[in-house]
Write a structure and sequence with these properties.
7-stranded antiparallel β-sheet, mainly beta, 3 helices, 5-stranded mixed β-sheet, globular, Neuraminidase, single chain
């Protein structure tokens, strides 16, 4: 099956009754849903400019037992809370957002507090891993919360990664047991953090964009919107070097995806899920299939231009259900439930 064939399949899917199945959607409304300590604090934040209505935009959502963790990077002034949580499964009409781990942790004046959260993932033992891209004067950092036991992070800015390590803020996160990986699309390096060793180091590599770990392989595209798919054996990245740099790990090119891809996501069943912008379609690829990547090893999960004008992030909840974070032209974000694999 060629790339032209898969576009024909996508078109047929869009015209079939299967495409018309009503998808469960959860809209995120940071301004209306954010829970303030009281009306006076809200008014003070508005008056001082710490909160600007419309500034916060949801760009990633991670799922844990009973909770969704919502990332709102501080890419514009006036984002009051950069990380929040909501009850999950969400209520049908209204999903309140509560700052995580607390309101004081949102105040960016101290580098040990949250600056600008660009990614989060719930890993083993229900640990919440957070990637904070940092801000002027504050380096990027990994934070790990054992949120079901306590809300204080078990890893703090004492082990922050230096901004110079990548040359630009990290934007993409993947978690592997007690390890986390972070990348920035135009930086020829991969950041690795070990919770067990309380250390971070740099692996020289090709510039890497979105990351997804499947069956011991770290898959990546060179950047958002790229078609080339790379695979790096994760075990080569596991050990901290003496000098802070672990040589090179450029990875193997395993083929080309069906088109420019966004929102790379790993599914527990061994699939790689991603979004095709030009087709407004989320597809999955069976990573156990014969290399290189082939169209016939793909499955269309959902194609809908109205629900998925573009997708900023894809994540899987604790039931194994994937969710795509659709983003509208006005920046509004909605989590869209995808069919289970």
């Amino acid at each position: 099956m060629t790339a032209l064939d898969i576009h024909a399949v996508l078109l047929l899917f869009a015209l079939s009754p299967m495409a018309a199945l009503s998808a469960l959607t959860v809209p995120w409304e940071p301004d209306a849903a954010l829970q303030w300590p009281d009306a006076a604090v809200r008014a003070l934040a508005l008056h001082s400019g710490l909160w600007v209505p419309g500034a916060a935009q949801v760009r990633a959502v991670a799922f844990g037992p009973g909770r969704a963790f919502v990332c709102m990077p501080r890419w514009r002034p006036g984002v009051a809370a950069t990380l929040a949580w909501a009850p999950w499964p969400a209520a049908p009409r209204y999903t309140p957002l509560r700052p995580f781990p607390s309101w004081p942790a949102q105040f960016a004046a101290r580098c040990t507090n949250l600056q600008s959260v660009v990614g989060a993932a719930v890993g083993d033992r229900d640990r919440l891993w957070v990637l904070d891209e940092g801000a002027a004067g504050c380096p990027p950092k990994f934070l790990v919360f054992e949120w079901r036991l306590r809300v204080r992070p078990i890893e703090t800015a004492r082990h922050a990664v230096r901004h110079a390590a990548l040359g630009e803020p990290p934007r993409h996160l993947a978690v592997d047991g007690e390890l986390a990986y972070a990348s920035a699309a135009s930086a020829p390096a991969l950041l690795v953090f070990s919770l067990r060793e309380r250390a971070s180091w740099v692996v020289r590599a090709r510039p890497l964009g979105p990351l997804a770990l499947v069956n011991g392989l770290l898959f990546a595209t060179p950047r958002d919107g790229d078609t080339e798919l790379l695979a790096l054996p994760a075990d080569r990245l596991h050990h901290a070097p003496w000098n802070g740099t672990a040589g090179r790990a450029d990875g193997e090119v395993v083929g080309s995806l069906l088109g420019p891809a966004w929102g790379l996501c790993a599914h527990p069943k061994g699939a790689l899920i991603y979004f095709l912008q030009r087709d407004h379609a989320v597809v999955s690829w069976d990573t156990s299939a014969v290399r290189p990547v082939r169209a016939e090893a793909h499955r269309v999960l959902l194609q809908d231009a109205a629900l998925l004008p573009r997708v900023a992030h894809i994540a899987v909840d604790v039931t194994g259900t994937p969710w795509a974070l659709g983003v509208g032209p006005d920046g509004s974000a909605t989590s869209v439930r995808l069919p289970t694999l």
